[in-house]
Structures are given as structure tokens and as C-alpha cells.
Amino acid sequence: MHKQTITRCLDQLAASKNIVYPETTEEIKDIIVYCNTNACSFYPVSSGNNWGYGSSFPSDENTPIVMNLSKMPGVISFDAEEGLLTFGPGLTQEKLYNYLKANSYEFMVPVTGAGPEANIMGNALERGFGITPIHDHVASVRSLKAILPDGSTYQSPFSELGLSQLDKHHKWGVGPNFDYIFFQSNFGVVYEMTIKLERTPDKIVLFTMAISNEALDECLLKLKEIKESYKGFISGINLMNTRRMLAMKSHYLLEEQGYCAEDKIQKLKTAHKLEDWTVMGAIYGSKGIRATIKKELKKALRGIGTKKRYIASNNVIINKSWLGKLFVDAEDLKKIKEGFSILKGKPSRYPLNLIYSLSDIADGDKKYNPLKDHIGILWYAPVLPFKIAIINEYMVGIYKIFKAFNIEPMVTLTIQNENIIASTIPILFNKTEKEAVANAHDLYRRLLAFSLELGIYPYRLPTIFQKDYVDRVNWKDSLAGKLKNKLDPNNIVAPNRYSE
């Protein structure tokens, strides 16, 4: 162990913690024995790069030990025939990409917007999602292994029978399956996981369009139908509001430093040739499937929106004569190329630029590490039933609430499937100013109350707001509370992480 001062993007708090980097399961067990013997707790993190949710800072600020698992194994094995990857907590998006590339394996990394240094296992355990074909990253998990608070080992059902190969192929096993109690919880330390990777397609068709607020309802319903009809062949579909797009195209927030008035937004929208919403998704599959879906999309969206583009990935290795056909300038072309890379499973720092929107750090000076760059951010990420009335009420409420707290609502709606829309909004603030931190936290509390009023809720919570969930579910009498009490009577593993 060594002492280290750790911080988080949620506020100004800094604290000295004992950091330990186990490299083997035996070392994890040694730490567990130490904590049980000495009545102290530890907080395990895969790498601690979950910006906007707490990083490696413990949920209980008094927890003295942080167990950083980034030196544990990365890739353990890969079945290139089946696309089954077995790995440890040491695997990042970048390391996986490099491994696949070095071995000429044509499979996609389950990328997210958190950047190449973000952790594969950590994101899955937080129930993260992306826009590649298996966009619900929990859905790709086949099996896992964990060390429990008493030092014993848990493994998925078939592995208990000595059928480890079968366990990696069949998700559920036989009898009770407790794999999923380790997601967003504190029941143990997951040290191995097997997930399914998707093959890299030879070609992707990117589709984009611009729509007005008035066309949003109809567009959503049409996209819902298409998404339901062609499961597995269409990426998560993003709808980004004007403010979200302006943050990508300009530095307008540096001038505003708060909620931008609607008349100013309208002028900027015109100047940057934007609409109220920009839609982006991708079509995967064989040539025939891509052609069919493209035809269905064109038919379904006829008369809805403008600036419709269907761009095949091979056409983006482009010469200048293509620019006019795509109606894009050189800067937009650069972004399209970056977008294709991400859609093909290549990790990128580009999406991280969004959370630097309030910062005046020059691109060349960015560390692309929000902790090191002292960025203040909270992610508000509710999931909504795919009901038009709820979505409309959500958008009205979001603008009203963010305006009241003088923070810019840069909204993304992601169609995950025909039943659920996930929304992500970065709450950006200057974390060196106490008033700005307090205002951002008050905004998040108001959003949680608003969520419950509307019948929605974040799929994931920053550590400092997990108590809101715990206080509402009668934790001690819940099944999770009873399990925690039995599995971890000394409460040594991540106290207060989605628990009391």
C-alpha cells in the first residue's frame, strides 16, 4: 500500500487514501483478510476512469483503502471462432483494440464515449452502453468470477460443474444464477469475465438527418418501428439537440458560461446550419440486409426532416470530389471519419471533447483526463419508457429546470431498443468555485425529484447521490440488504455503494 491523494470530477474534495494494486487473486484475498481482521473497508475499482460518476473516490468518504485492479490481467483468452473474450480488470478499450489488431482479429471493441483508457469490465459492471451492435454491454456478458467478502470464490453455474467452456457459451447455466448481483453492487470483487464480441463488418452505412422539434414525435415513432423490425442490425440511434451539436462545432459555452438564451441559440443554429435535432445511427449486416434497411428507412422517413445522408464507410476514404455529394465541409468530413471509426469499434478521445466545453484548455494541452484537467462534471443519465408523452414532458422539464439553475442542457436521446430511450446530459461546472459546485449538486437533486415525478430514473448514479436511491428502497429489509448482511457482515467491501 502507498498513500496517495485522490480527487473526483464531482466537486473539489481531495483525500489521502491507501492505494493498493493487486496483480493476482491471492493478493486480493490477502487484502480481504487484512480488512476483516482490522475492521476496515476497501473500495475496489477497475481503473477509476468513470468520469462524472465518482472516479476512484469511495462511496463512503471514510473508507481508507482503494483497491485499484488496473494491474490485474487484461486479455486471458480469446475464442476467435466464437468471438468470446475472457479477460480481467486490467483491460482497457485501447489495450483490447491493440490486442485485436495485433492478432488480425476482425472484432469490435465495445467502445464508449469515455475514451481509450476507460475500462471494459468496469463499464460492464456499471451497466454501461454504447452504439455498436451490442450497445447494452451487460447483454454481452456470458460468465464471471468474483471473490466474496469472506475470501471464497464465486463462479457462474456451469463453471461450478467444471464446465468452463460451456459456461462461456451459455449465459444462464443451470439452477440459481447470481452473476448479476455483482453489477452496481458491493457483494465482492469481480476478477474475471467473459463477453461476446461482434465481428467488424466489411462496411457500415451511416445515416444522419436533421429534424425540427415539431417532427420529433413522428421521427421517434418511425425509428422505433425500424429498430424493432431489424434487431441487431442497427446501432443505438442518437438524437442530439442543438445545444449538444453546438458544443461539438463551436466554443459558444466559453462565452455564455451558463444557460444560453433561446434567441442566441437560434442565431447560432442558423450560423452553423443546424436544426433542432440531429439524428445519427448506423446500419450493419450483409450487403443485402444493409440495402433492405436503407430502403425501409428512406420509406419510413419520407417527408420527415432534411439533410438526409446515407454514407457507406468505404466512401469516407474520400477525395475532394465527394465533399459536394455529401454536403459537408472538410471539418465535418473529419468528424464523419472519426464517427465511422467509433462505429467500427475503435476507441477515440473525440467524444471526450464534449465535457471540455466549459474549459479554455487548448486541444494540444488537453490530457484527456478530466481529473488531471480539473473538469467539473456530473452525468445525468435517465432511462425513459418509449412513450411519446413521457419524452415530450421530459424535454419540457429539462429545459425549464436547467434554465432555472443557469446550466446548459446538452441533450442526447439514444434509442436503445423499441422499449427504452436512454438520455445523457453532462452537467458541466467550474469545480474550483464552491458556488458553482453547490449549484450543480442542487440541480442534480432537482433532476432526481423530477425523474420520480415523471416515472423515470437514472440507470446509474454518481457516488454522492446513491443515497437518494438507498433511502427510497428500504434497503435493510430489501433482498439486496439481506444478502449484503449475510455475505459481508463486517461491511468491508465498498460501504455505501448503492447500499447503507
From TrEMBL:
Domain called FAD-binding PCMH-type: residue spans: 12-200
Record-given protein name: FAD/FMN-containing dehydrogenase
Organism: Cellulophaga baltica
Family indicated by similarity: Belongs to the FAD-binding oxidoreductase/transferase type 4 family.
Alphabetized PANTHER family for the sequence: D-LACTATE DEHYDROGENASE, D-LACTATE DEHYDROGENASE, MITOCHONDRIAL-RELATED
GO function terms (MF aspect): D-lactate dehydrogenase (cytochrome) activity; D-lactate dehydrogenase (NAD+) activity; FAD binding
Record key words, sorted: FAD, Flavoprotein
GO biological process: lactate catabolic process
Pfam family, one: FAD_binding_4
This protein's record includes keyword Transmembrane helix: no
SUPFAM superfamilies recorded: FAD-binding/transporter-associated domain-like (SSF56176), FAD-linked oxidases, C-terminal domain (SSF55103)
